[in-house]
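Entry type: protein chain
Record version: 2
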Amino acid sequence: MRSVLLVFLFVFIALPAQLLAETRYVTDELVVHLRRGESLEYKILKMLKTGNAVEVLENRGEYMRVRAEDGAEGFVLSQYLTTAPPKEQVIAALREELQRLKESCGDSEKVRASIAGDLQNAGQEVEGMRERLQTAEGELLACQEKYTMLVEQSRDVLDVVSERDQLLREKQELASQLETARQRGAEGFQSAMIRWFLAGAGVLLVGWLIGSVQRKQRLRF
């Protein structure tokens, strides 16, 4: 079956040449006469052996007008021509295909070995990526713990700041009250000083008046 497929492949490859002119081959182990005309009476121009290719120029039934590979033109009996490639060419084509397949198989082995190496390298890279992923997950967990700690600490800091602000407000209130008390105390001290001053002045004035009266009485006597 494979040989048949290869034959069809060879025929398919040869199709472009056949589009220009039909090619036929001398069948069996024969020697065919290429004659000048369509009869055995005409002169023999060339001897064609089995496997020789000729280009069909005109099909006249019993005879075909053909052109040989060297350019000679003449007539050949149609019964000795066939469209099937010669066995030698088929065998040669099969040998070439076999050689190509062997080379392809060799290349396939190289490709397979290369793919196996790539897969091994890929496996090592995947293993390395897994290790890096585990390390990254550990670092992420540590970062999450630090973040949670910082959040808790920030809450404590907020509480401390709130308490500090409350103490500052209380301090300001106390300072304001103390200043008010100082002002009131200063005003009271001034009032007391004035009262004591006036009281002392009054005592001196009374004493001076009494002394004056007594001096006047002494002068009379």
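Comment: The beta strands are 23-26, 31-35, 44-49, 53-59, 63-68, 73-77, 81-82.
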